Amino acid sequence: MRARLLTSLISVAGIALAGSVAAAPAARADEKVIAASGILKRVEPPATDNAARQLVQTSVRLVFDQNRATATVVLAGSPTTGADQATLRLTVGESVPGGCDGPAYATPTVGDTDVEWQRTGPTTYVLDWSGVYLDDDYDCAAVELVGSGTRYDYLFGTLVPEHAQPALQVDSTTLLGKPKLNLVPGVWTKVDVDVRNTGQGIASQVVVQGRGKGLKVKSATVPYDIYPGSTGTAKLTVKLKKKRKSKLVVTVLSGVARATANAKVKPAQAPSRLRAGTYRSKDKSVTFRVKGNKVVGFRVRTQTTCGGYPNPFTYTTNWYDMPTFKLPKSGIVDVTDRGDLYSATLGGRASGKKVKATFRYSGPDRCRATKEFTAKRIG
Length: 379
Description:
Largest sheet: 12 strands, mixed
Radius of gyration: 32 Å
Number of domains: 3
Number of strands: 30
Number of helices: 0
Order of helices and strands: EEEEEEEEEEEEEEEEEEEEEEEEEEEEEE
Low-confidence stretches: 1-27, 103-114
Strand content: over 45%
Oligomer: single chain
C-alpha cells in the first residue's frame, strides 16, 4: 500500500519534543494495533550550518482508529529572520531502504488550522492532525526541512506498534448474588467477584486478590479470557476470623491493568445443621440424600435449551447430577462441576430440613439449563 504524506509550512522552526516514547506493554498476538510511535533519528548530515534549519529530534505518534497524526519537533536554533524560512514536512508510511515511502497526497490550505504546525517555544513546533487517512500497516515516519529546492535536514525512524490493552473494573462482589457479605466467623466462604473489561484488549489470566482487617483471603483467577466489553467471574474464598465487622478490599490484575473495590463484611449466625435423610422438591424434579454432613446422589430434571440463531432452538428434558459435596458450617452451597465440554454449578443455602438453591448447566451445542428449587426432608 502506498504511504501518505503530511505537509505544512513553518516559520523555520521545529516541533517541541514530547519526550521519549515509552515501551508498550507486552501484547498478545491476537490483539489489534491501535497506534504506533517512535523517535526519529538523523540518517545523513544536515546540508546547512544554519541552526534554524537543523533538526535536533522528532517524536511521532499515529492513532489509527482516530486517523490522527501528532508530531513534536525541536530545531537546533530559533528561526528569527526571513532567511530562516523553510518548509517542515512530515511523512508517514511504510519502510523502504533508506527512508519512509509516503508520497504527498494532501497539503494544508488556508483555514485548515488543525493541520498547521503550532509553535510552542523558540525552537519547538507541534503538529496535531486529526483529518489524515492512516493505515495500520504504517510503520515509519520522516521529517524534513526543505526550501528553495534544497533539503536542509532529514530525520527518519521506524514506529513501534502499540497494541490494544485491557482495562479492568470490579462490577460487584456478592454472596449468592447479593452484595451483603454476611459471613459465619471461622468458615471459609466463596464470594463472587464480577470483573468487567472496559478496554480494547483481551484481559487474560485475570487474578483476583483480597485483603482486610480480621480477614483471611485466598486469591482466585477468572478461568477464561475476558474480551472487551465483557465480564468474567472469579470465586474469592474469604474467612472472617472473629465476630466483627470488616471491609474486604478486592484487587483485580491482568498484565498492567489493575482495579480495586471495597465490600462490607458482617458476621452472621451459623444456621441449623442440615439433618440427615432424603430430600426432594415438591415437583419431584430434585432428589438427594444427606449423609454424614454430605450431600450424595444429587439429581435434577429440567428443561434444556440448545442452539440458536441462525437455527431454531431445540428443547429437551434431561436429568443431571452433581458429585458428592460437603456441607459447610455456614450452610452456603457453592459447588462447581467442570469438564472439558461442560460446566455445572449449584448455589444456595441449607438449613435444618430445607435446601433452597439454583442449578445451572452449560455444555456443547450451546446447550444450557437452569433450575431454581426448594427441597425439603421427606424421611
